[in-house]
Amino acid sequence: MKRIVFCDFDGTITAEETFVAVLKEFAPEVSAELMPQMYARTLSLREGVRKILESIPSAHYGEILEFSRNKAICPGFTEFLDFLATKDIPLIIVSGGLRGIVETVLGDLTQRVQAIYAVDVDTSGEYLKVYSEFEADTELVAKVKVIEKYGADENIAIGDSVTDLNMALHTPLVFAKAPLCRYLQEHKKPYFPWDDFFQVGDRLVYLWK
Ligand SMILES: [Mg+2]
Questions:
Q1: Radius of gyration of the chain (CA)
Q2: Gap from CA of 76 to ligand 1 centroid (Å)
Q3: Which of 160, 165, 164 is nearest to 176 (CA)?
Q4: What is the block-wise mean pLDDT of the chain (209 residues), using blocks of 10 residues?
Q5: Which of 17, 82, 131, 143 could form a disulfide with 94 if both were Cys (CB 3.0 to 4.6 A apart)?
Q6: Gap from CA of 160 to ligand 1 centroid (Å)
Q7: What is the average pLDDT value for the chain, to the nearest integer?
Q8: Which CATH class is domain 3-208?
Q9: What residue spans of 6-132 are helical by DSSP H?
Q10: Domain boundaries, the chain
């Protein structure tokens, strides 16, 4: 039986939202204009995040990675990777943020995840140019499409926000933090609440024994 864990990054692996902080720091005006529209769902994440990122000069990319460098990782993540390794279960990161930020924050842990699906940027022009292999509908990184690509027998989703809602609704086993919990309750979708990766690991040990 092939199991895969699909895990969000911002606010899930990182203790706080790194990507939103980056957008506000490096594109304050465009963010102030577009973020309320994205929260109000009158502008898609796909369009809004692209516009904000593509308003940032490529020359600032190094500073963006530097800004992300010391962001804290949620407790128990390394131990969770250890646990999954003993079961031969891969962990795949699905993030609507920048791949460079994910890799910078993870550091040496990058090698321990099976794959990272996130937004890529080209820095060769004057402004950042955004690329995403799994762009669809309203999302810059359509997490469900990534899950479908793997076709595992059992998928496990871990997330924290509305950007994980589609993924959670398409996954039988879901770990959700606030505010994702609230959206799942509205959809009457069962989930396990979690605060750190020790709890996720403990729950899976119990479910799989
Ligand atoms: Mg998140």
A1: 17
A2: 17
A3: 160
A4: 96 90 95 92 92 97 93 96 97 96 95 97 97 90 95 97 93 96 96 98 95
A5: 143
A6: 5
A7: 95
A8: alpha beta
A9: 18-26, 28-39, 45-53, 61-68, 77-87, 99-106
A10: 3-208
